[in-house]
Amino acid sequence: MSPKKSKSQPNHQSDVFNNDIESEQLDKRGQRKTRSSASSEKHVFVKKELDKDTSANTQDVVSEKRVKHKKKNISSVVSPSVSVNPVEETVLSKDEERHIDQKLTEIYENGDGTMPDMKTFEKRKKSKFLTAFFVLLFSCVFFGVVAWLGFFVIQPQSHFSEEDVVLSISGQETVKAGQENTYRIRYRNAQNVALNNVRLEVRYPKGFQYTTSSVSPISDNNDTWDLGTIAPQGSGYIDVTGRMFASLGEEQSFRIFLNYTPSNFSSSFQKVAHLALTANESVVRVDINAPTEVSVGSEVGVTITLTPEQGEKLEHIRVVCDSELFAYKEEASEPKSDEGRPCQWSFDSLDSVRTITFTGSFSSEEAKQTTFGIDVLGWNSPDQTGDGYVLAHVQKDISLVKTDTIFNLAINGGVSSLTAEPGDILNMSMQLRNAGEVPLDDAVIRLMINAPAHTTGGIVSILDWNKLDTDSDADLIGEQVSDTVRRGILTWDKRYIRDLDQVNPGEEIKENISLPIKNNLQTTLSNFDNFTVDVIAEIQYGTGDDRKVIDSNRVTLTIVSDFDLEVRDEVTQNDADKDVHTVTWLLSNSFHELHDIVVKADIYGDVDINKDAIVVPAGEVEYDTAEKKLVWTIDQMPLGVDVLAMQFDVTLLSKNETQTQLTSKVEVRARDTVAQTDILTVGDEILLTTD
Length: 691
Hints:
single chain; Immunoglobulin-like; 5-stranded mixed sheet; 5 helices
């Protein structure tokens, strides 16, 4: 290796010196290596600054020595055969050589005056400890910076923010009045600070009736929950179920309050959420069956049908008439109205179809049009304080006609349309009233009944005319209108009703008729292609060309399938001396094909039902052990299947002396695919006998 060039020396001086050193190293390589390995001494070259005179003299001497050295090199490398011109050699004196050596020594000597070993050059070894130390130091600094960025920049700081406390409530905003709904209350602590002493409070809508919740409340009003501590980034929810009572169109709202104390605060905070609800439908359907046109002062029949949605059970219900011109007649009501409250009926519960029939009259001096309405009111408590909530409101427009003759017809309380089943009895009533000032002379009443018939094996009517019953005798004429319709005409005149000779002003005549519909034991129902009974009456009075004819209202009756349910109960005892009720639900049908059949009942008391032992001929049976509700569903009951019997055992585990029923009344619904109407019927409940 060559020594480092000194920047203070010209290049030619360094070249001469380097050549001498290189020659020595090549001649004594082996010895140099031995020295190098044996010596641990390290040499450091120090650049010295010389004065100008010394530097100049040194350059001259080096130049002369360099010329001499080149001559020697040329002689040694040129072949003997090559002719080289001799060059004059310059010889230095000893003083000059000593002077040069002295100057060179001053240049290259160490700081302590010693000379470096020019034959040995060692590469300084790196310290492993220092390397490891610097790597460790650099790593600590690097990871410290990363941690600082993560703590102060990337990670959110652990400070409290009200905005990071999230509270919400979700659920059905447009509800059906009286319907049970579930609402979910969600809470979340979206920060790195815990929330302590957390309490959730709910202010229910005015008409909300609490049923249950996914987390048990701590208050008697079922409106407060103690949530304890919500951890950082913690969350949860509570489902609240209840029935919403609200008047149609009325808006109510939930208000939710979350009270808490942040872990880095000593004061309390509150978060608020709300949800607005509007009732625009009802879970109960109300149908009013009344004539659209009535004579002022005449008696008319009204039928109200209440149909709750399937699976809904309403409690504390009241039905109220809403009409200023209607005069209610108590003696003709079924069921009877509330005591002291005409045209008003109260029900503890409503979970199946209810029918109310009554009569009355409209009075008016000037009005030509009026409305007759029905309100269904509900309360969320049994005491029924206040005005209640309007769960349903239905009204019907009625035209009022002033006439001298009032003539009305009703069948089983219906004055326009109704349904009946094979085996039912049609109870018809006609009412004639002279509201004028002149008598009605020579009056004649005719009742025309068009009913289903067939001609298989002769003319057969679905009505059992042999069992016709009337208050007064009448002429009866039958005629075949078509292959599927037969008409019967009943006629009364003064021979049978003496007052028809002259009906005086203010006088009233009533006539009642009873006519059964044949059942499947009396005729083959499947032979009838028609299932509609059309009934209308008329009265004729006057003489000669002045004779007048006035028609009554028309009543249309649809005969649906003879779908029926029979409930049977047989009691035995098991090995544990427990009463076992073997219950059979027997469905029968022979007129029309039925679809979507649902049979259901509630089971009461401390009982057990073995689901695996239930005998199901068709469809499926489900028993809800929590609700104690048994439901049998059948998709289809064709005409080829006239009977279906489902059987199950109910074990009475313990007896309650106050319990009188094992089951509720059995509700049955089905779709008559021929008449395109729903059939609703009720089976008997099972009563418990007391020892």
